[in-house]
Specification:
single chain; 451 residues; alpha/beta; Rossmann fold; 2 domains; 18 strands
Length: 451
């Protein structure tokens, strides 16, 4: 009976899709739950707000579904709270039966090739944060290069390439803030080259994302017919996946069509493995790639043939990486938290009452919706463990608010998000836009806190 004296109190660290899906899974269970969703930013939604290109309203529509979760009485948003600084795991144990970490992945994976640290070589995650108006990154971005390389063939690489190739005016109807519009308006890029180490059947684009490249009236998408090649492994991949086949078909069609006269050229290169970023006086002046060829299995091997490309900037989009989380184990090799079905593992076994979900759990792979399965698995384990969980000393929901207030932390709430949302929408009205995103943290707090 002891476990039933109070609702199951759960803290979720990270209010992106993974954390919100975990809250949803808890509320859909038979348990009487009370959930606090902690977020480092003043606003919720994580990757959806700060990791999705602004010209993707379809993906941002996921926010509508997430809204419905956060509108429920059992869950409370506590924003502008930096876990590890403002509140620790020991602090949380006073107020909660269990803690779920869903801190995501917002750094760039390393690409260990010569020259990758030159001036003009950037991580995609940093660029995405800039054009998505993240408050913790610089307000300007150097866009002086006329010819740009993007390394990687996933959706993030396409987002980066598309934003670089579009005009500022094309992106103005979106929610981009004024500083981003000003930067993109002055962007000098007229050629964007996207490089993939393997072939069309190994590209990680989704078909819809790929086809969207061709919708811009200013972007000419170009594929070299020499890059359309398949081996037995590639053909098997096409047979086994409709998405892979659709991507390959689209690329084939683009490879055989006549080139048009749109002003910005976006080249999709396959079988080109980045070997070195070439520098001069500390700045990027080119890229060297090694031509690869299929080995029969869908993998590739180097041919020993190298080519230099005239580019003045390089963006690596080779995957995201999670950072270590205070007070819990972290595997630097995989960039994930060690776990067993979501139970965080220390050297001597599961860490009592501590769980993990989303990209910090399984690595930054898959689409946003895939985190639902992670959440369901983790929550099932948490509920199984409930009888053995240590009861918190201060389970009353008001206790943690007293703690935060006493610490002088200006935390935001779900009601505050509605205020910020209304503020951003009001900023868009004079320009006929749905919203204009607020960048400055202080302004976000003023709007959210009603000051």
């Amino acid at each position: 009976m002891t476990a039933a004296r109070h609702p199951l109190r759960v803290a979720i660290i990270g209010a992106g899709p993974a954390g919100i899906y975990a809250a949803d899974a808890l509320m859909k269970s038979d348990a009487d739950v009370s959930i606090d969703l902690y977020e480092r930013m003043p606003a919720p939604f994580g990757l959806i707000r700060y990791g999705v290109a602004p010209d993707h309203p379809r993906i941002k529509g996921i926010i509508t579904a997430l809204h419905k979760v956060l509108d429920k009485d059992q869950v409370r948003l506590l924003g502008n709270i930096d876990y590890g600084t403002d509140i620790t795991l020991d602090d949380l144990r006073q107020f909660y039966d269990a803690v779920i970490f869903s801190t995501g992945a917002n750094a760039d994976r390393a690409l260990p090739i010569p020259g990758i640290d030159l001036d003009g070589s950037y991580g995609a995650a940093d660029f995405v944060s800039w054009y998505d108006g993240h408050p913790d990154v610089p307000r300007s971005w150097p866009l002086e290069a006329e010819k740009v390389a993007v390394l990687g063939v996933g959706n993030v690489a396409l987002d980066v390439a598309r934003v670089l190739a579009k005009t500022g005016d094309e992106l103005l109807p979106t929610e981009i803030p004024p500083n981003v519009y000003k930067g993109l308006k002055a962007n000098k890029a007229v050629e964007v080259h996207v490089f993939g180490r393997r072939g069309p059947a190994q590209a990680k684009f989704t078909p819809l994302e790929l086809r969207e490249l061709d919708h811009s009236p200013t972007i000419e998408v170009i594929v070299d017919p020499e890059d359309i090649d398949y081996d037995e492994g590639s053909e098997a991949a096409r047979r086994n996946s409709k998405q892979v086949d659709m991507v390959a078909n689209t690329l084939e069609q683009w490879a055989i069509r006549d080139q048009g006269n749109r002003p910005h050229k976006l080249f999709l290169h396959f079988f080109e493995s980045p070997a070195e970023v070439i520098g001069e006086d500390g700045k990027v002046v080119g890229l060297e790639t090694e031509r690869t060829q299929l080995d029969g299995t869908g993998n590739v091997k180097g041919t020993g043939e190298f080519k230099q490309w005239d580019v003045q900037a390089v963006y690596r989009a080779v995957g995201y990486r999670s950072g270590a989380v205070a007070d819990i184990p972290f595997d630097e090799a995989t960039g994930t938290v060690p776990h067993a079905a979501g139970r965080v593992l220390a050297d001597d076994g599961p860490l009592p009452g501590v769980y993990v979900t989303g990209w910090i759990k399984r690595g930054p792979v898959g689409l946003i919706g895939h985190t639902k399965g992670d959440a369901n698995e983790t929550v099932a384990c948490l509920l199984d463990d409930r009888p053995a969980l240590a009861r918190p000393a201060r389970p009353d929901p008001g206790a943690v608010l007293e703690f935060l207030t006493g610490a002088g932390i200006p935390f935001t709430t779900w009601t505050g998000w509605y205020r910020l949302d209304a503020h951003e929408r009001a900023l868009g009205v004079p320009e006929g836009r749905e919203r204009v995103k607020v960048v400055e943290r202080a302004e976000m707090l003023r709007a959210s806190l009603g000051r």
